[in-house]
Design a protein that fits this description.
This protein is mainly alpha-helical. Helix 5 runs antiparallel to helix 6 and helix 12 packs parallel to helix 14. The longest helix is centred in the N-terminal third of the chain and has 17 residues.
């Protein structure tokens, strides 16, 4: 496939080593077994744009690739296809294709760069019960998709699901979920500080510390310290 050849030319072994460490690919780490060839994000975006018309069969080969950067380009192409889609039938096809490949969306950068721009706009005016199901999944990355997809809704002033999904994930054991929930709650607070504090009041003392720190990062320092010290 031509795009794979082009990506191979861009490969940088030294940067690949950095990525292997940064994305925790060692034994027992969350990215164990992932393979990087060392391509920076701007070049991956350029490649995705240049191959915007790649067919679904070939996009599927990219998304299923053992090489991280190839999966990323496949997902970026899907994001671009969704943005450009003019018909509901085309958007449905892209959404179904994306949700059918969750097992290959298996690191936080792959989740974060794609789900808000496909799941988000697709469910903006639809029932979002599927997010609840995903939030209860045994698959780490599906749970992260459930919460990070809310970024789209939040940016459009819709907080109807972020608190619900956050509540489900409050007791999640994984640090990457703690960070993602805290991130989305922080974003929600930018839209409506009172709504966030209403959510925090019954939950903040039981939240994982990382989640709480991310959530209240933009609070005034005096109030932040009260939350951290359990004095709200």
């Amino acid at each position: 496939m031509q795009i794979k050849k082009e990506l191979a030319i861009l490969a940088d072994p030294k940067y690949a080593q950095h990525s292997q460490r940064f994305f925790k690919t060692g034994k027992g780490e969350y990215g164990y077994g992932d393979v990087f060839i060392g391509i920076r994000m701007p070049n991956l975006r350029k490649a995705a744009k240049a191959h915007a018309n790649l067919g679904f069969t070939d996009v599927g080969k990219l998304v299923k690739s053992k090489i991280h950067e190839e999966r990323m380009v496949g997902l970026l192409i899907l994001v671009n296809k969704y943005k450009a889609a003019g018909k509901e039938a085309d958007r449905n096809r892209i959404y179904d294709f994306y949700t059918g490949h969750f097992q290959h969306i298996n690191n936080w950068d792959l989740v974060d760069v794609s789900c808000p721009h496909i799941i988000g706009p697709h469910l903006m005016d639809k029932n979002r019960n599927v997010l609840t199901n995903w939030a209860r999944s045994d698959h780490l990355w599906t749970r992260r998709i459930a919460i990070v997809s809310n970024w789209w809704f939040i940016r459009n002033g819709d907080l109807t699901s972020v608190f619900k999904i956050s509540r489900i994930l409050l007791n999640d054991e994984h640090d990457l979920i703690h960070k993602a929930v805290g991130w989305m709650l922080r974003e929600a607070g930018k839209q409506n500080r009172q709504a966030l504090e209403d959510f925090l009041q019954p939950h903040y003392s039981d939240m994982p510390r990382t989640m709480l720190r991310y959530t209240i990062e933009k609070f005034p320092e005096s109030k932040r310290q009260k939350y951290l010290n359990g004095k709200i």
